[in-house]
Amino acid sequence: MPALHRTIVRPVMTEKSSAGYQDRGEYTFEVVPEATKPAIRQAVESLFGVKVTGVWTSNVRGKSRKVGRSSGKRPNWKKAIVKLREGDTIEIFEG
Predict the structure, then answer these.
(1) What CA–CA distance (Å, rounded) separates 52 from 45?
(2) By the 8 A CB rule, do 42 and 52 touch?
(3) From CA 71, how far away is CA 10, in angstroms rounded?
(4) Cα–Cα distance measured from residue 38 to residue 28, given in angstroms and rounded to the nearest whole number
(5) Burial, 57: exposed, middle or buried (Cβ in 10 Å; 0-12, 13-18, 19+)?
(6) What secondary structure letter does DSSP report for 34?
(7) pLDDT (tens digit, 9 = 90+) per residue, 22-40?
(8) Residue 58 and residue 61: Cα distance in Å, rounded?
């Protein structure tokens, strides 16, 4: 299992995910494929100093792309949606 700071790859900031944290306090992250729910919970709590109340994960399949004559595929990745307790926020999403 990767170290805590390597469990979370990056925050996912899309229109759909921004509606999630504005309405329900849910934040979306790209995590390493080997990450488990307890490891994700521990990483978010220690890195951002918040209390996590729920973690949902899903494996996202990479899309097939065609560029010219050749075809390729984007890599598969794992997404984690994290719900925080009432009143907690993560600064990187609020900007």
Answers:
(1) 7
(2) no
(3) 27
(4) 16
(5) middle
(6) T
(7) 788 889 999 999 999 999 9
(8) 10
What are the strands, taking DSSP E only, across the chain? 8-11, 26-31, 52-60, 64-67, 70-73, 77-84
Nearest to 65 by CA among 74, 56, 57: 74
19/26 Cα distance (integer angstroms) = 9
Which tokens sit at 88? 């907690």
Global confidence as pTM: 0.86
Structure tokens at 68: 């010219």
User: What span, in angstroms and rounded, lies between the C-alpha atoms of 35 and 32?
Assistant: 6
DSSP 3: -
